[in-house]
Amino acid sequence: MSDITTHLLLPYILASQAQKHVTHNEALRLLDAMVQLSVLDRTRTTPPASPADGDRHIVASGATGLWTGWDLNVAFWVDGVWMRLVPRPGWLAWIADEAAFAVWDGSAWDPVGVPQDVSDAIFSLVNAVDPTKKALFSLSGITTGTTRTFTLPNTSSELAILAGTQTFSGNKTFSGSLTASGTVTVSAAAANIGTATTTAIYGMGTGTTTTGVTKTVNLGTGGASGSTTVVNIGSAIAGAGGSTVVNTPTVTFANAVTQVGMPQANLTAQLLGLGGATADGYNRISVNTPALLLNNAGAGIEATLNKAAAGNDAGFAFKTGFSARALIGLLGNDDFSFKVSPNGSTFFDAIRIDRNSGRVELPEPLHMPSLPAAPDPPPAGKLAIYARDRAGAGWLDVQRPSGRFFPLQPHFGVNRIATWAPSTSTTVNTNGMPRTAVGTVATPTLATTNLSTSMRRWRVTSAATADAVAEERSAGWVCWRGNADGLGGWNYVNRLSLTTLQANGMGFF
Q: What is the extent of the structural domain holding 390?
C-alpha cells in the first residue's frame, strides 16, 4: 500500500506512526492549498517581495530565484516558506487578476468557459452600466463555407462602421483601400491620407459621373477672412521629379486669386488669355491690358517674330476698331517696310528698307515742315537736310557740322550750264559762258592793307578813256524749283559793271 493518496498525493497516517498529528496536519495543509484552487496571477517569474500567508501564484515560464524550475506549477506561501504544488491534468484554478478560470491539460493552463462556436442570433454584448444598451453581430454577409478573421489593433480605439455617421478620435491608419460613399470629415490639425513609400495610387472622386450630374472635389475650400490656405501638390524635395496632369477642359481661378507664382516653370499651353481676354484658334495668346512690359533680365532682351517662308508676313499691325491702319515688318518679302491704310483693306507703301544694302526707299513724296530758322548743326561726319521757311515759302536746306547752311534745290533746270569763279590769275575763269568786256575784270592779289585780306573779290577796271564803262556780261539762265516747268523760277543775268568819270577807275565786287 502506498504512503500517499493516488490523485492529490496526500500522506496517509500509518498504523505504527508516531506523532500522527503531524501527518494529519500536512494533509490538511495540502488540501487547503489545492481545494477550491484560486491564484492571484500567472505572470510572475520571481516571488513577490512581501507575500501574505496563503498566497498562491501560477509560476510563469522562465522562472528564476526561489521559483527556478517551477514553471507553470503553483507556488504556495505558507508558514513563511514557498511550497511547490505540481498540478495534475484536470486541475481547475480561478485566476483573480483575469477574473477567469483556467484548467491544466498536462502542458498548459487553458481558459475555461469560452465556447468555440456561438450563434450570432444569441450572442450579444451588454453595457456594464446600462443593460439596455446592447450590440449584436450579424454574419449573414459572409460567403458560405468561409471564415473571416478580424484582428483588433494593439490600441484603444473605436470600431469603424460602413454606414451612418461616426466620429474617430486620435490617429487612424488604413493599410488597404478606404472607400467612403458619404461624408468623411477629418478635424485633426494634421492628417495624412496615403503614406505609402512604394508605388501607390490614391483616388478622390474617381467614380464614374453620370451624364448630366456635376461632381465637385473640394481641397482647402474653408477658411475665414484673413486666414491663409496652402495647398501643396507634388514633392517639394530638391531632385524629386513628378508631373501634375489636369484633364478637365476648363480650369478657372476665382477673383480672390491675385497671383500665380512659377519662378522656374516652363509653361506649355495651346491657348492663353490674360486680363479677362479669351484666346481662340487664331489669336492663341490674347491679352486685355493698359500696358505691356518686357524687361531685360539678362545681357539683353529680344522678341522674335519668325515666318516660315519669304512670301509670308512677320509684322506688327496697328488697328483702330480692329481695322488695320499701319503695318510694319517683313510684309510679303524679306525687306523691312512700313505700310499705312485708310480703311484696313487698301495699303500704301510708306518706307521700304532693302535687306541687302540698307538703302531706304520712300515710295511717296516726303513732306517736311518749314523751319523758321536753321536748326542746331549736326554732329561731325553728318549732314542735316531740312525745310526752311524763306519769305513764306519752303526751301530745302543743307547744313554742315560747321554750322554753315545753304539752299538745296532737288530739281535744277537751266537754259545753259555755265560757271565762273575767281582764279589765282588776273582773269576770271568761265566755262560755257560767253563774255563781253569793256575794260578788264580780274582777281588780283591785293595788298594786305586792302579789303582782299579778308575776302576774294573781283576787280573791274574801266578803260583808259574817261567816262568809259567797265563791265563783264554773261548769258541769261533760268532756274526752277520743283520737278517740272511752271512751278516757279527766275531769269538770271550776270553783269558786273562800273561807270567811272576818269580813266582807269576801279571797282571791287
A: 370-407
